[in-house]
Amino acid sequence: MGPGCCHCGDLASRAGGDAVLAGKVSVAGTDTSISIDAATVTVAAELSADCVAQRGGISLVARSGSIQTTASVHANVKGVDPSGQVLLQAAGDIDLGGPLLANGGSGGTIQVTAGGDLTVHAGVSANGGRIEEAGGGSVQLLASGDVDVGGTLSARSIAGFGIGGNITITPGPGGSVSIDGVVDATSRDASYGTGGNIVIGPACSVRLAGMLDTQGAPIGGSNAVIYRTSFDATGGAMFAGQDGSNVQCRCAQVRANGTCAGGCAENPIGLGSGNVVPAATLIPTDLSACGS
After folding, report:
1. Residue 277 DSSP label
2. Measuring CA to CA, which residue among 218, 148, 204 is closest to residue 172?
3. Beta strand pairing status for 246-254 and 260-264?
4. Number of domains comprising the chain
5. Does residue 31 lie in a domain region?
6. Residue 202 resides in a domain
7. d(CA 170, CA 227)
């Protein structure tokens, strides 16, 4: 697409080859949308479907290749209404070098599905605003390969009586998750708020050098990490509600009745008292081995 365009309403484009967005593309109004369907998709300039009310939406589909972004993609709502949707789906890898945003009165929905590996360098945000009881939205990262998070994932609520949103990171059956950034589903309003939920896995291995945070004021949410082979939280942190975080490992043995025996096949490392608050609960689970 050209050096820049702005529309009121919807914008749809389907290309048999590659789609390269080299100039700003923006639609504005109420209930607006942008849809791009091509072999591969490259976003090198701002892509915006912000609304003054109701929901906006952006859909990027790469049917036979990859999606790469180096600029922002956002479907925010500038008002009290729930925010929009940002949906990315690729047959191959997805590399997010620009932010994905679906912020609003209540947080929107961001879903990224990669047929290969998924890498996040920039922020991904579905935050709720200051409208009372507004909650954080939903962020889902799904891949057939590995997921690497170097940026911030956020589904926060900053509203009075708000609830933090939900963040899910799921690699492929043989994939792993690496987190160097912050994953934030908190609700920290000074009056009252409830933390959200973060789920990592199931994954072959999980490396946490960043932070998982579902704290609330006064009620915290929950973190769950599910791994089959290894979980290394050295240098990382996990903060949750009074029930703490759950860490599910593949159990060493499975009895005939399907229950676990013998603890974890491989214990996690790096879950110290200073970086995991409250202490995590270790739950041996009947999980298949990687590669099986």
Report:
1. E
2. 204
3. antiparallel
4. 1
5. yes
6. yes
7. 11
